[in-house]
Amino acid sequence: MAQILIIEDESAIRRVLGKILSEEDKNYKITEAEDGLAGMDLIKDNDYDLVLCDIKMPKMDGVEVLEAVQKIKPETPVVMISGHGDLDTAVQTMRLGAFDYISKPPDLNRLLNTVRNALDRKTLVVENKRLKKKVSKNYEMIGESELISIIKNIIEKVAPTDARVLITGGNGTGKELVAHWLHEKSDRSKKPFIEVNCAAIPSELIESELFGHVKGSFTGANKDRAGKFEAANGGTIFLDEIGDMSLPAQAKVLRALQENRIQRVGSDKDIQVNVRILAATNKDLKKEIEEKRFREDLYHRLAVILINVPSLNDRRDDIPLLVEHFAQKIAQEQGGPRKEFHTNAIKLLQEYDWTGNIRELRNVVERLIILGGEEISENDVKLFASK
After folding, report:
1. 147 and 276 both lie in a single domain
2. Bridge-based pairing state of the strands 78-82 and 100-103
3. Contact yes or no for 306/168 (Cβ under 8 A)
4. What pTM did the predictor assign?
5. What CATH number is attached to the domain comprising 107?
6. What is the mean predicted confidence (pLDDT) over 278-292?
7. Mean pLDDT, residues 334-346 taken together
């Protein structure tokens, strides 16, 4: 049921609006307020799906109501009700965040269309927030060990800045997770997060993938194509396994970092870009520099902040929390009941040598849930998680 609040100091107009909306849809629950102050008291205590608000009112006018709603309930659409002399102000309220405005006396079709559109928008906003929260939860870092606490603290400090971050660590430790967290907690979180696996792209195609190309620049380039840097404009680009990037591509990335502009393959036209760069590698880049396989100047450009993600063997105290997290997630994915792990089973898992790190632990937990008993026992671990 859609909750609609009408704030209007003229009782006759309140009644007309309420009657029109009630007759249009029996699922509309209408609440009325005679002025802005009364309306704000109701808004503070309730979650309305839509507010219809007059502009000229005693005590607190519609513009003040709109500004207050934007602060405390920004997801709530506000439609302004304007008299003939209020049209200029109504247009100004659109710039302040009003969804729309309707004139007095209200045109029936315009009123109903505006209300339906505003309610649809509220539904989309709520759904987007729910999905964003779900995505953020998927990238939550699980663990309370000292090493993970240090990383979380660094992320809290670094995420709001535009500082470049180089994330190091072995395969399966969670470097991608750190990159996602940095983006989710940044001011760029509403902008794109573009991920590039540098090791998975052939060296001859990496430049085109990153910077795009123009038609005819090479065999198979049948049309102009934007690259990942353009796609990430305003947001974040994550260069995973950057240690596998070719030297020519490294030179172009360095230029993009220095000048905030790129050139598509086959073009000499500069394209301005505004991206935050996060990079990750499982290689020792200092050794790669000594072997002339990685540019030292690029390394120093990327490594403003260094985050080393520890191996699972270095954070065994987190294994109980990780097992619980994976067990819950797998149960949701498979639609079955969540299985508990016996204390002895957890202790045995903590003794294993996790060469595959978090990724390997997740696979083992899923295997145990599929093959083990109703409660995962120490014997289940010995049978199905043996190394």
Report:
1. yes
2. parallel
3. yes
4. 0.65
5. 3.40.50.2300
6. 96
7. 92
